[in-house]
Amino acid sequence: MPFKNGVKRVVVNLTAMALGLAAVAGPSLANQEADHPEVARFPGALIKNYDYKEYEEFQLILAKPQSMPGGGYTAAKLMPLEGKVTYIHYEMPKSVSPLQVFRNYQSSLRRSGFAELFTCERPCTTENLSAFSGLMKARKLYLNYSTDNQYLAAQRNNTYVSLWVNDGGAWLFVVEKEKLNDGLMAVTGESPIAKALGADGKVDLYGFQFDTGKAVLRDGSKPTLQELGKVLQDNPSLSLEVVGHTDDVGGADANQRLSEARAAAVADALSRQHGIAAQRLKTRGVGQTVPLAANTTEAGRAQNRRVEIIAQLPDTATKAAPASRAAPAVQPPTPNTAAAQPSGTPATEQPKPRNLLEDANKAVEAAGKLKNLFGL
Q1: How far is residue 34's CA from residue 327's CA, in Å, rounded to a whole number?
Q2: 257-271 pLDDT per residue, tens
Q3: CA–CA distance from 17 to each of 24, 151, 355 (Å)?
Q4: What is the pLDDT of residues 200-240, one digit of tens each?
Q5: Looking at the 3D structure of the chain, how many domains does it have?
Q6: Chosen domain end from 119, 151, 179
Q7: Which residues are within 8 A (CB) of 25 and not within 5 positions of it... i.e. 6 or more apart?
Q8: Measured between alpha carbons, how far is 182 from 193 in angstroms, rounded to an integer?
Q9: Among residues of the chain, what percentage have pLDDT more than 70?
Q10: Last residue of a domain, one of 179, 211, 229
């Protein structure tokens, strides 16, 4: 009996620890590794893979997938969607069957007011789910397993569900259809700098003039400084990241320090001469590491010596800045104005946060096993 009481204390403590982990995970993992609020979790299921995008495309399958002669899959009826896309892969308890899971999801969704748009009973297909990634526009998200494939698509108002169930678990996509908010990088103004920031969120400026190896702005920089200051004055919610770039003349360490000093000089001049609050201006330097052209000619080196301006509005200021690569450029062939030349920018991938919710899942599961083992 003392042993059993001791075990009970262990189970109670373990359960409390699991609940504590879940409480910590809840608020800190909003939209990260958590159940979607409109689709219930199957009892005992654990989240194994998760992804959330504020705005993405997805495609509902509304007819049985068919292979194409040239490879890949298609379906007679598809529904393209765009909006918030949540992907969750659940691992199921070993004691339940894919059929049991699928039927329960059907019932749960119906009780929640979802209407089925299409159902494909087992075996809907014998292919590995990864074969349908392109058909669903599921990007490179993890899809796997092929035994007992079952599929359904459902809708409630502007929320759509795409669900595969097989021997590898449940593969859930929830799409909250909505229009794209394309004003996140909106910058007003008719100047070349304002237009470039409004269209692309960033711009390369060549009008800031420095002596070789120096970080003191020359008088010839005033037109560009004035134009950029006016953009900030006309857009009071706009913040900027000022990024210095150099060519490869000289040592890499010296160029890094020089790029940082030149970015700081621009920010300081905007604050002192145009009254821009310092907290609206972030600075950094990348030295010679992000060239736009080969440094083998003077023309190429001149293209690489620049100050890059990256817009940061309130909705995006806390997110990672776009990679400093191939920004549209504002050249200074004539005073005060220049042409913007946009080009693409690769996205910066963020490291995945620690899966606290899975820790809580495992702790709760361990507590349950101890209870069953000792008959508590």
Answers
A1: 36
A2: 999 999 999 999 999
A3: 11, 36, 16
A4: 889 999 999 999 999 999 999 999 999 999 999 999 989 99
A5: 2
A6: 179
A7: 33, 34, 356, 357, 359, 360
A8: 19
A9: 73
A10: 179
